[in-house]
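Input/output pair, single chain:
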Amino acid sequence: MKLPRRLFGLALAATATIGLALPANAQEQSVIETIKQDGVIRIGLSLFVPWSMRDKNGDLIGYELDVGRQLAEDMGVEVEFVPTAWDGIIPALVSGQF
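Output:
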């Protein structure tokens, strides 16, 4: 009798996990579709040499920017970089700033 209860518990946990992973509204767009619709991808970054930094003219350069520009090109959208302090990266991401 213990095995069926455990199986029931596992099935209930799996169902809850899948339910939480699915969007609440089937009409919601994915992040990728939203980016394509807006025509711009906003990428947050914290300045950290050599990944992202400013050159002598103050322009952003670095590996993260190269990857972001290529991603935007591949998606057919514009790119906008949002420099953010490292300790604010996650709160800004959660609030939808990028």
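The two ends are 51 Å apart (CA to CA). The first helix runs from residue 2 to 21.
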